[in-house]
Amino acid sequence: MKTSFQHFQAGLTHYRAGDLDASIPEYREALRLKPDFLEAHHNLTLVYSEQGCFEEAIVEYQAALCLNPYDPEYRQRPPRKRGGLSLAR
Predict the structure, then answer these.
(1) 24, 46 in Cβ contact below 8 A?
(2) Rounded to whole angstroms, what are the CA distances from 80 to 13, 16, 30, 34, 53?
(3) In-domain check, residue 34
């Protein structure tokens, strides 16, 4: 049985290889096992943004922001649509 970190690593491998669809279930399983896995939420934000799934990207961004509300760097880089428009609400 894989750990949350192992699922995260598998998702990251898929993401880096450009296989966004394969990365999603790995990140999702990492979050099922460890719901407060900030990096998995963040990486899902990136995946969904790149796929044009902006509602899903916002949900993941907000989840990550709730887990790390005081990080000014993360607060200043919300997911963006192509063309540079911020999706933050």
Answers:
(1) no
(2) 23, 19, 24, 26, 11
(3) yes
**Residues 17, 9 contacting (CB under 8 angstroms):** no
**77: DSSP letter:** -
Is 68 domain-assigned?
yes
- Asked if residue 88 belongs to a domain, the reply is no
The confidence score (pLDDT) of residue 78 equals 63
Q: What's this model's pTM, rounded to 2 decimal places?
A: 0.83
Task: Measure CA 25 to chain center.
Answer: 12
Q: In this prediction, what percent of the chain has a pLDDT beyond 70? A: 81
Rg (CA), the chain: 13
Three-class secondary structure of residue 80 per DSSP: strand
Is 87 inside any structural domain? no
